[in-house]
Each structure stands twice: as structure tokens, then as C-alpha cells.
Amino acid sequence: MDAELSTLLAERRSDWNLRIRTMATDWRIRALPGVWTGFLTLLVAGPWLLPGYIFGTDFAGPRHFAFPDSPASYAGLQLALALTGLALSGEVVGKMLILASLFAAGLLAYRAIPAGGFVPRAVGSLVYMVNPFVYDRLAYGQVGVLAGYAVLPWIASSIRGLLLEPTAKRALAAAAAFVVVGILDVHMALIAVILAASLVLGNLLTRARDLRYLAQLGRTLVLTGIVALGASAYWIVPLVLGVGTEAHTLARIGEGDLSAFSTASDPGLGLLPNVLGLYGFWGETTERFASMKEFVPMWPLVLGALLLLSTVGAVAAWRRADSLHLESARSWVLGLIVAGIVAAVLEIGVSDPHIAPLVGWLDSVFPPYRGMRDAGKWAAVLALVYSQLIPIGVMETVGWTRAGLKDGLHRKYAEPLLIALILTLPLYYGNGLLYGMHGQIQPSSYPAGWYTADRTLVADSRPGRTVFLPWHGYLVLSFVRNANNVVASPAPLFFSVPVVASQDLEIPGISPPNDPDEVTVSHLVTAGAQGNWAQELAARDFKYVLLAREADWTNYVYLDSQLGLLRVGDFGSIVLYRNLLWH
């Protein structure tokens, strides 16, 4: 009996050990995507975890995140950031937004790839997360664009799931993805619609004879549209009616905007290689930040290799879907190719005289398309296409290596070397992003004087409103430690009272804002010492004037002699005036 009992206990211990090992293995497999994308996120943004605010040209180191005051598409994001800001500092919230966008981009791209193990998925997430598009948008501080970009793989995977299984559950999941991308960036919402339409078209072209399936798919797509539009009605209806901030911005967009924000060409290779290489962002021409090409001198060769892998992946998926365990591969690849072609054409936009009439026609028949004045955002679709096709090309290339090398020793070393080379290609191609963009963006601190001025304003029980000078939409800030320290006026996001700063882009061909506050202050700045500052500001409910010692601040020294303006504090980096005519 003792022997039998011992045997039984040994078997049970062995069974439990096996279960524990299996659970540990399953946990590691499930955690691997998060560990990989977390590693890539820290590789890019690790230096930004040091104390200080993160500044970009359009991301002005927010100290406060305000609650939404209008039915704009981004009101949901505003609300989430404002609620988070109640518990955490603006410095932390801003960094969380950036890191979450990078992490989500890598993780969602990893999971969107329809087949393959860790290596091809790791390559796909690397392609999508570390590339010139992400570099340019981070350098310019377009964090909202990156947040919307991060969700595009979710759009693709949810549409693929819906096409494979057109059910109400899948429809609701896809609708949720569309609602989220609309909240994060309205331009990416339009791009997501075109992406989804291309994937549906690819599916229809390969399954056109299955009438029962088509009928079910049609009902599911209608349900998706109804739910997504209904949940987004709070901003779509005002936009259609021409009211609200976004509608007014859209109404001001003209030919000058399309020209100023058109896709840029490479000086040596022209327009198309720039587009295919995920370059061409108009901000590259401002020379405010180093081009990614400075970190990747052989970028055309690497781009050629990545395009070759994409082509191999597309051909393999079309011909050998069964062996790759890729369900409905042909419709998937066809949809991605259609989306890529459409995106490339629209990204070229007005930069090519052959495509410019198409853009003009789109603007006339669908006025909201004017909002896509920054045609470079279409590169997001190309990045997604690459992130989906290159992993399939990786699987095919590794398969060739295994089949071609019969010798065990050669195969033992050749396959790891090939995988290392493939991982190196996208990492090298996007290496300008690494280590905080090689120190081009560094955490920065606001001057102590700004905090003192803020406490003075907060101490006033009836602070009215405050105007911030120098009067520029973008200005050089001496305390920003970035290589590019031209930043959107940060005052409205720093001070704890209502502050009005210039929103004028000061780009030739683009009209300045026609807001009454903007018009009043712009008139006073033009008039200079001859302007009746106190009286006109009082009429617009401005009780205080802040003058930061930045940019061309010496042009405003006449404020000390303006009747009705009293200097109440010189805090070194900033001067505060009170309007004595304010009631």
C-alpha cells in the first residue's frame, strides 16, 4: 500500500508540475507582445521619463488639461485627459499620452497581423511603430495624430474579423473602433473609413458569387455604420450644420492651406520615393528638426528591401494562403493593396498637377475633405500595409531558408542570422526615433517666474481674462531644451485662469483667425504704442496682460507707458500688467 500511495503521490506531483509549467509557458506567450512593444516604447521614449514637460511644435507642454466646452470630435479625449489630470500632474498626463500612443501602435499592429509567430509579428509591430511617419509627427508634436494612427490596426483587424464572420457582435466591435479613432483624430477617422472600404472591396471582389454571404455582410455593415454614426453624432451633426470649432476651422481652409501643407518631394529622388518611404511631411521643409534621412543615409536601399519583403508577402499570401494558415488571404491582400494605392495617390495630392484636379473635385463634392489639407497623413495607411505584408514576406523568406539548407549546421546558423537581418532593417530605417529622437526632444521646465505669475493671477478672486504676449501662434522659447524650440504658444495650457494667445499660423497664403479677440489684439499689436490698449482690452473683458521675455518681447516695452495699464509684477522671465479700466 505504501508503494502504491507513493506512486500515486508522485504521479500527482508530476501532473501538477506539468500544469504549472504549462501555465508559465502560456503566461510568457501572452505577455510577449506587451513585453516587446514595451521594450520598443522605452527604446524611443525612455529619456522622456526624466522630470520635465515634453514639448513639440504643436504640443506645448500642457500643465492643465481643460474639460471640453464644445461638441468637437476630440471632446472625448479632452474629457479623459481632464479627468486623469485631476489625479495626476499635467507633466505626467502628457507623457502618458505619448507613451500610450506609441505602445498602442506597436501592440495593435502586432495583434492585427493575421498569421505567424513572434518573429514576423515583432517585425510588423516594429515597422508600424518605428518609421519616418511616427518620427515626423513626434518631432512636430502632433500627438493626437499619433493617437489616431495607433488605432488604425484595430480598425483593420476588426474589419477583417467582421468580413470573416459577419455577426452583430463583430459589427459592434468594428463600430467601437471607428468611434475611438474619431475621438482621437478626426482626420484618421476619414482615413479609417477609406481603409475599411478598401478591405470590404477586396473581400467583395473575391466572394462576389456567394449571395447569402453578401446579404449577411451587407446587414452587418449597415449595423456597423448606424452604431458608429450614432455614437459620433455629437460632433458629426454640428459639423454638418456648420457650427462649432471644427466647422469654423473647415470653413477657413482654402487653396493657400492646401499648398502650404502639401506633400514634399525628395530633392534628389522626387515625390514618389518620398511617399513610398513614409516621408513627405510638409513640416520637413521648415527645417525646424533634423530629417530622419540624416540618421539613415542609405534609406533608399533599405526602403527597397522593405518593399521587396512586402511584395514577397503579397505574392505568398495570394498563392499559398493554406500553407501559411492565412484565412481569406486573397481578399485581405487585395484590400490592403487597394488601400495602399488610394492612400499613395491622395498623399501625393496637389503636389502633382495630374492629381490636383482629383483633390479639387473631392473638395467640391465632399466639403469635409478640405480638412485633409495635410495630405501626408495618408502615409499612415502605407505604414499599416507594410506592417501587414512584410511579416508574411518574413515567414516566406524564412521558409525558403529552411527548405533550401538541408545541412543541419548551415541551417542552424543561417536562420537566426536571417531573422536578425530582417529585424535590423526596420530598426535601422526608423532609428532616428531611438533614445528620445537622439536627444532632439528633451524634458523641459517652465521658468519659476511663470509659476509666480500664475499664483498672482489665481489670488485674484475676479481675474477676468488675460492676454498673452508676444503675439505669435508659434514662437521660440528659450527654456525649451529641444533641438527645435519653436512651440505653439503654451500660455493657455499653463496658466490656471482663462488666457488668450495668438492662433495665427503666420504662413503666407493662410488667413489669420477672425475671432473677435484675435482681431482686437492683432489690431493693438499692429498699432503698437499708438493703440488704446486698456480701453480696447477692457471691452473684451481682459483684466491682465502677460508679457513673456521670449522671442521679440522687446517690441512691447511701450506697455509700461500705456495709460490704464499698471505693471503689478516683474517675475524675471515674465511681466504682469493689470488693466485699470477693467470692470
Can you offer a commentary on this structure?
The protein is globular and about 95 Å long. It is 60% helix and 5% strand. The strands form two sheets. It has a five-stranded mixed β-sheet with strand order 4-1-5-7-6, sandwiched between helices. A two-stranded antiparallel sheet has the order 2-3. Helix 4 (118-129) packs antiparallel against helix 17 (379-404), helix 7 packs parallel to helix 9 (211-231) and helix 8 (186-206) packs across helix 15. The N and C termini lie far apart (99 Å). It has helices at 2-45, 75-87, 90-112, 118-129, 132-139, 143-164, 168-184, 186-206, 211-231, 233-241, 245-252, 255-260, 271-276, 299-319, 329-348, 356-365, 379-404, 408-429, 434-438, 448-459, 491-494, 516-527, 533-539; strands spanning 465-469, 474-476, 486-488, 499-500, 542-548, 565-570, 574-579. The protein contains 23 helices and seven strands. The relative contact order is 0.11. With 583 residues, it is mainly alpha-helical.
Cα-based radius of gyration, to the nearest Å:
27 Å
**C-alpha geometry:** globular
Number of helices: 23
Provide the succession of SSEs: HHHHHHHHHHHHHHHHHHHHEEEHEHHEEE
State the share of residues found in helices, binned by percent: 55-70%
**Low-confidence stretches at least 5 residues in length (pLDDT < 50)?**
none
The tally of strands reads 7
Q: For the largest sheet, list the strands in their spatial order.
A: 4-1-5-7-6
- Specify the biggest β-sheet: 5 strands, mixed
* Average pLDDT metric: 89
- Tell me the span between the first and last alpha carbons: 99 Å
β content, as a range? 5-15%
Structural class: mainly alpha
